[in-house]
Amino acid sequence: MWAIEARNYGENPDYFYMSGLTQTESRKRHSQLSNSGKWAMVRSWDLQAEWEQQQANERIKNWKKNE
Predict the structure, then answer these.
(1) How many domains does the chain have?
(2) N or C: which end of the chain has fewer CB within 10 A?
(3) Does the pTM of the predicted model rise above 0.90?
(4) How many Å apart are CA 22 and CA 35, to the nearest integer?
């Protein structure tokens, strides 16, 4: 499952977020948002990979406590 977000900063900050996308859908939406010229920052990422990294970080943190 993939997610995408877009942000604007400054005087008129704005935020867009969408998740539950396939990689193909995410790439298409990312392209549309980044090429629109309306957003200062656009990013998309794999939520599954993010969750796995968080779990690994927690295991490492707990492992150091047990030494």
Answers:
(1) 1
(2) C
(3) no
(4) 20
* Residue count of the chain: 67
What is the CA 52 to chain-centroid distance, rounded? 14
Residue 65 burial (C-beta neighbours within 10 Å; 0-12, 13-18, 19+): exposed
Residues 6+ apart with CB under 8 A from 57: none
Q: Identify the domain containing residue 33 by its residue range.
A: 2-65
Give the count of alpha carbons within 13 A of 19, CB side only: 6
* In contact, 19 and 1? CB cutoff 8 Å: yes
Q: What are phi and psi of 2, to 5 degrees?
A: -115, 155
The 10s digit of each residue's pLDDT in 9-43 is 999 899 999 999 999 999 999 999 999 999 999 99
User: What are the angstrom distances between the C-alpha of 30 and each of 1, 7, 54, 59?
Assistant: 15, 12, 24, 32
